[in-house]
Amino acid sequence: MEVKSTNQTEPCTDSNYDRKAELKAFDDSKAGVKGLVDSGVKKIPRMFHSGIDITENIATDSNLSVPVIDLRDIHNNLALREAVVTKIRSACHEWGLFQVVNHGIPISDMDEMIDGIRRFHEQDTDVRKQFYSRDLKSKILYYSNTSLFLDKFANWRDTVGCSMAPNPPKPEELPTVFRDIIIEYSKKIVKLGCAIFELLSEALGLDPSYLKELNCAEGLFIQGHYYPPCPEPELTLGTSKHTDVAFLTILLQDQLGGLQFLHENQWFNVPPVHGALLVNVGDFLQLITNDRFVSVYHRVLASHGGPRVSVASFFSGSQDPDKAKSKVYGPIKELLSEDNPPIYRDTSIGEIMAHHFAKGLDENHALLPFRL
């Protein structure tokens, strides 16, 4: 599939430049971006050049920021819960994301999860290489850039990930450097995710169990991203502009910053709050809420500093391929009316995921082909 660039400048014009060969050599090294940094590169390879001016459309209104929502005592205090539901309803509709504090996951576990991902990526290269794979059926996925051979430019980032629910790998299949903490962290993230899906259901005026009964919380995939220091951060991105192909993402980030989201065509920073988790609406949730909740574009800047580490927990529905193909999702009937007709056709998670992987990071929303 040909991916058309929306960049104003083309990153590659030299007729002698063999992009495919550079991509293949990079992938065959199995050392990722971390391997490039370890080799002492002073200039980033051309495959990473974005042709994007990252200084364009940066927000200047310092009064606008991501809502921070306190979940303390919401299970015991009805008035507090109703106030939180109101805030979440507004945040999901206006912003597409919010941060949560007092969410029940100890800061010590969050810090250890960050450290575990850092330990994995900073292992000896020969140890990391054992896990390197682009086979989506692998129990452990370690690679650099999901759609490396499809995207217009490569991101300055390496990733390790695995499905942790409903059928997690056996403990002995997990890398030893983060085995214990990812097992513990995933249990707590599932619990928090279920609690947030209840609040989202209430924010839609539905029964608290509604979204959970749609199997929104059934599948959990955790990715640990590692952004090494970049010698020329102005020439590339840590993560390209995209939305998340999931119902919901809960993001744990370290304290370095660099994450930005697009709001009213301006890029806003998401300043790290120690102890907070970022919750953002995914494409599947936008579809079933008929655009009442919005899946927000976001990106990560490359940086001289770092490394930057983040852990993304994706709630993506059923992980069973047969269920993903056969279970149909469409706008929730209770939310529709003559004034609010369906915007999307009924489809399956499998169909949306297939489109997402086929198009790569082309800056186009994954839901576009599914609109009526």
From the structure above, extract its key features.
372 residues, alpha+beta, Jelly Rolls, eight-stranded mixed β-sheet, four-stranded antiparallel β-sheet, 10 helices, 14 strands, 29% helix, disordered N terminus
Structural features, described:
The protein is of the alpha+beta class. The chain has one domain: Sandwich (Jelly Rolls). The protein is 29% helix and 19% strand. The strands form three sheets. It has an eight-stranded mixed β-sheet. It has a four-stranded antiparallel β-sheet with strand order 6-11-8-9, with no helix packed on it. The longest helix has 25 residues. It is globular, with a radius of gyration of 20 Å. The N terminus is likely disordered.
Q: Can you say what the CATH homologous superfamily is?
A: B-lactam Antibiotic, Isopenicillin N Synthase, Chain
- How many helices? The count is 10
| Spatial ordering of strands, largest sheet | 1-2-10-7-12-5-4-3
Instruction: Give me the CATH fold name.
Output: Jelly Rolls
Silhouette: globular
Number of DSSP E strands: 14
Helix content: 25-40%
